[in-house]
Design a protein that fits this description.
Elements: H1 18-28, H2 33-37, E1 43-46, E2 63-75, E3 82-89, E4 92-98, H3 102-108, E5 114-119, E6 121-124, E7 127-131, E8 134-137, E9 150-153, H4 158-162, H5 167-181, H6 191-196, H7 202-210, H8 215-247, H9 258-267, H10 274-286, E10 294-299, H11 305-318, E11 322-326, H12 330-344, E12 351-354, H13 360-372, E13 377-380, E14 394-400, H14 407-414, E15 422-427, H15 433-439, E16 444-448, E17 459-464, H16 468-480, E18 484-488, H17 496-513, E19 521-524, H18 530-541, E20 547-550, E21 563-568, H19 576-583, E22 594-599, H20 605-616, H21 620-631, H22 656-672, H23 682-690
Parallel strand pairs: 4-7, 10-15, 10-16, 11-13, 11-14, 12-13, 14-15, 17-22, 18-20, 18-21, 19-20, 21-22
Antiparallel strand pairs: 1-9, 2-3, 2-5, 3-4, 5-8, 6-7
Bound molecules: adenosine-5'-diphosphate (ADP) and magnesium ion.
Adenosine-5'-diphosphate (ADP) binds near residues 276, 559 and 588.
């Protein structure tokens, strides 16, 4: 077919009928030839290197062996059922073991035939073996694709394999595709960039990523394609940022007024940390540019984000605007309100609280005062975004613990004024820098990376189940000193019933160990009606109960400075960022606080790493980096909905340098050519026109 190109539907590729096209679409979202070519190998086998069985050892990441399959047998029953093969070369024999797809393998593997196998050697009972090796019939006559020395490996699925689309099958398709479109492939980056960064040209990179002749060529292709991918993501993000600044006029706060100064000079009970000062300065600068501010403040739990928010709101009020602050739960909103009121005193400004349980009468007053402009600051929950809530002149919006709110909710606040208010989004979930640059690349980011002076770092200790009596003893000690204790149980959706049983069993045990009337226990979990939950929470906040047994509902923001012990049950089942959030519930007062991680004796490697990381450090950013390395970007909170992370080849945990290079390159380009109207940037302008993206607040979540 003469006019085959990257956008040709996949069914028109030679060797792909309607059926194969169908599975390719369903299983791999491959719709066009271009999609296929962007389905890159995830690994390569070095075909030049063969090992003899005698040379294998368990430290090898992978090894290729030529030998003969001499026997194949099923072993074990039910759960331990497996398929065991004996594989032999002139130096020895080893076992090959499969635990899955047994019947399929039994049918397709040929006993007696020569195979080239690839897998990770491991040591079992003193013998070398491989589990789930890749098996390829050895065929000395077969001409290897372009004399490949590096063999691409594509991930495949059972379904794909049924249509002969195993790694070999996919490789054949890639070859056909490249043969049909190679001559029409065109460079996607401006020539000056290709030259400056010494990048492999696009057509060559596409060929080499699928069929590299050697490692050098492969590395060149990888670098080129990763750079390109990250470059275009940054191009879109920074273009969006540029458009937003142009599109949305913002209120100009051009003075620091009386309320701000009075508060700062006479009410603020502590000196601000340098980090707090820096962020306030950044906000002051942003709100005085005439453009609308969209700023994300990241600060570890306890870093003092609230006071930064308050001072920013005062700035707005001083300039004649109203401000509001939205928190994800009623408890949090109430705490913020009480805390801020206490800090402010009664005379600086008019501040009120609006939540689901605000009385109708109070609500009427609030609505009235909002509309006539006598209410300066409103704190609340989702209730703030109801259409009935109308401001006279809203100029500044704070959103606390942003990951709990959806896009739509933020957009509603945004629309509460003809000129959108400045937005300050605060999060206590630190995000690694690389991720932030990609996820929030079109927002401004401030970081509060310093805790107020004099905080005692929380001591974190790992205990196993058989040390529980010690833990109880420690709890009694702390309670005797007048402190309070949290005990948190995991509650993970799939096993909710089981988890609830655990929690109830744990509670019974506790009630025996800590009997009434000396001890009082609160219990809070997600299945309780909101009212009961709030009631129990309040009892603990007021100090009426000494022990709070809870599921993760207490994770966000709750402030009980008198609580000094956080016990996390089955700690190995929590994610790192969750553990860190939970630990942040203590260490809020002057006393030494403790976090006790309880776990069983048997831990997975990852579970152990998580617990060890928690014991080692209190630094949220360090924890976030480990989290990213363990789980990959797709699982970090808040990233799931974001399309920017559907990367085909770049990897945020490994490609930090390329990311920085790509971002800086884009920044430079926009500096020199803000409208991309120079001829040399035409390709970039075309790209943006084809990949039109909307307003950026949809990325704030
Ligand atoms: P978070 O960043 O987790 O929201 P908060 O704003 O709730 O933290 O602050 C935690 C505690 O630290 C509050 O009791 C607050 O009053 C106090 N705090 C904030 N800034 C300072 C500071 N600069 N010096 C001392 N204490 C501070
Ligand atoms: Mg907070």
């Amino acid at each position: 077919m003469a006019d085959i190109s990257l956008i040709t539907p996949i069914e028109y590729l030679k060797g792909v009928g309607p059926q194969k096209a169908d599975v390719l679409k369903k299983e791999l979202q491959i719709f066009t030839i271009g999609d296929l070519l962007q389905y890159y190998p995830f690994r390569y086998i070095d075909r030049t290197k063969f090992y003899k069985i005698r040379q294998l050892h368990p430290d090898l990441v992978g090894a290729q062996v030529l030998g003969r399959l001499v026997q194949l047998q099923e072993a074990g029953e039910k759960k331990s059922k497996r398929l065991v093969g004996l594989f032999r070369d002139e130096t020895g024999t080893m076992e090959l073991v499969w635990f899955q797809s047994i019947s399929w393998l039994k049918k397709s593997l040929k006993v007696g035939a020569a195979y080239i196998i690839y897998g990770k050697p491991s040591l079992f009972n003193g013998q070398i073996s491989m589990s789930h090796p890749e098996m390829e019939l050895f065929n000395p006559q077969e001409k290897k694709l372009g004399n490949l020395t590096m063999q691409p490996v594509y991930s495949s699925t059972e379904k794909l394999k049924k249509f002969n689309l195993d790694t070999k099958g996919i490789q054949r398709l890639q070859q056909t595709a490249l043969e049909s479109v190679y001559s029409s492939l065109q460079e996607t980056l401006p020539a000056y960039l290709v030259e400056k960064y010494n990048l492999m040209p696009y057509p060559k990179a596409m060929l080499s990523i699928h069929f590299p002749q050697n490692t050098e060529e492969l590395n060149g292709a990888l670098k080129r394609l990763k750079f390109e991918e990250l470059f275009f993501i940054q191009l879109k993000l920074l273009r969006n940022k540029q458009l937003n600044t142009q599109k949305f006029k913002g209120h100009r706060f051009d003075k620091v007024g009386e309320k701000f100064n009075t508060f700062y000079q006479t009410r603020l009970p502590f000196p601000l940390t340098n980090a707090q000062k820096r962020v306030i300065k950044e906000i002051r600068h942003d709100t005085n540019t005439g453009a609308q501010m969209n700023r994300l403040v990241q600060g570890d739990v306890g870093s003092g984000k609230t006071v930064v928010a308050l001072m920013s709101m005062l700035l707005a009020v001083d300039n004649g605007y109203q401000a509001c602050m939205m928190a994800p739960t009623e408890i949090l909103a109430t705490q913020h309100y009480n805390g801020l009121k206490e800090l402010l005193g009664n005379d600086i400004c008019n501040i009120k609280l609006l939540t689901g349980s605000t009385s109708a009468k109070e609500r009427r007053i609030i609505h009235q005062e909002l509309e006539d402009g006598t209410l300066d600051i409103l704190i609340g929950t989702h209730a703030l975004i109801e259409d009935k809530v109308k401001f006279k002149n809203i100029g500044f919006v704070v959103i606390d613990e942003q990951h709990r709110f959806g896009v739509e909710q933020r957009a509603k606040l945004w629309r509460k004024n003809s000129i959108p208010p400045h937005m300050l989004v605060m999060t206590a979930t630190p995000i690694p820098r690389t991720l932030a640059m990609t996820l929030y690349g079109d927002l401004d980011i401030s970081v509060i990376d310093e805790l107020p002076a004099g905080r005692k770092p929380i001591k974190t200790i790992h205990f196993s189940e058989n040390q529980r009596l010690r833990v109880f003893g420690f709890m009694r000690q702390e309670i005797a000193k007048g402190r309070q204790v949290y005990i948190v149980y995991p509650l993970i959706k799939e096993s909710e019933k089981m988890d609830l049983l655990y929690l109830e069993a744990g509670l019974e045990n506790l009630q025996r160990e800590f009997p009434l009337p000396q001890y009082k226990i609160s219990i809070v979990h997600g299945k309780m009606p909101v009212k009961d939950k709030d009631f129990e929470m309040q009892r603990f906040v007021k100090g009426e109960t000494q022990i709070m047994v809870a599921t993760t509902v207490i994770e966000v923001g709750v402030n009980v400075p008198n609580a000094t012990v956080m016990i996390i049950e089955n700690a190995e089942r929590f994610g790192l960022s969750q553990l860190h959030q939970l630990r942040g519930r203590v260490g809020r007062g002057a006393e030494q606080s403790y976090c006790i991680l309880m776990s069983g004796d048997k831990l997975s490697k990852e579970g152990r790493t998580r617990i060890e990381t928690m014991v080692r450090t209190n630094d949220g950013f360090e924890i976030a980096e480990v989290d990213l390395a363990l789980r990959g970007p797709g699982d970090i909170s808040g990233t799931q909905q974001s399309g920017v992370l559907n990367m085909k080849i770049a990897d945020l945990t490994q490609d930090q340098n390329i990311l920085h290079e790509a971002r800086n390159t884009v920044i430079d380009i926009f500096k020199k050519d803000p409208t991309l109207s120079l001829p040399e940037n035409r390709l970039l302008l075309n790209y943006l026109n084809q990949h039109n993206s909307g307003i950026s607040w949809d990325k704030i979540s």
